[in-house]
Amino acid sequence: MTPARIDGLQYANWSEKIFRQMREGNVDAVHVTITYHENFRETVLNIEQWNRWFEQYPDLIFQGHTAADIQKAQDTGRTAIFFGSQNPSCIEDDIGLVEVMHTLGLRFMQLTYNNQSLLATGCYEADDTGLTRMGKEVVREMNRVGMVVDMSHSGERSTLEAIEHSSRPIAITHANPSFWHKALRNKSDDVLRALGSSGGMLGFSIYPHHLEDGSNCTLQSFCDMIARTADLMGPENIGIGTDLCQDQPDSIVEWMRVGRWTKAIDYGEGSASNPGFPPMPDWFQDNRHFGTIEHALSATGLSASDIQGVMGENWRRFFLNSFAAEG
Fold this sequence. Notes:
Layout: E1 6-10, H1 16-24, E2 29-35, H2 40-56, E3 61-63, H3 68-76, E4 79-85, H4 96-103, E5 106-110, H5 133-145, E6 148-150, H6 156-165, E7 171-175, H7 189-197, E8 201-204, H8 219-233, E9 238-240, H9 250-258, H10 290-297, H11 304-322
Parallel strand pairs: 1-2, 2-4, 3-4, 4-5, 5-6, 7-8, 8-9
């Protein structure tokens, strides 16, 4: 079996150019954000747009539903697209929509995006009260249907409670360790140890606000961080989740951070002088550069099999155990 190359999270301004770059970079599967603050009906409209892309570019992409679609992508020279949501807004206040969204192809859902939600507390809130009563019920339902609990933007207590409450391993699809860079979104040693011991997955983010030295982060620093995290939580529990937002206008940053919850501009992890998208590091500009990371990891002391795991095989195994319904 050819080792897979999988990205645990992207939110690009999708186009034929990007789909072709995925193929140039031999990216077999990508978890894509299809919705942030959209409600159910608005999310369905986003799925309609993806259906058009699948129809327009059938030689480049197709919708992924199961882990077997990774092998299908490799066999046909295409990229499997797996849907995810960065906020539970798409299920509104209706737990029955979890199964409906899964039927439509949603395979990941964050319980919160930075703020308090109906389900959990986001990483920007001063008080983290953990999973709510509805949150615990939704986690149970996500476990039942085969939808991954994603805690990338959640607070510490909420994340630890999600790990404990979920009957299946959860994912933090796009974040980095706080020992390396202390962004609010990055995760503590306690969270990473709990995630690893439960069989969960961490996807390393290349979004500059999550990196040591931001856009000037070096490839060596990034790869050394991966090796150190492998020691902390196990090399089988880590992968890549670039959080690539390629070609997005700065207005999308405003939508991501502000949504409909405030009239003010929330600068989040950016600064008032640079509220838009920061430049990506020079060693990773788009999907064609995954090989750069893979090559550099060989200098960290990680074994060849561990590197294959980081680049995609660990996500393949996680998808296999996560996307099917229980029972």
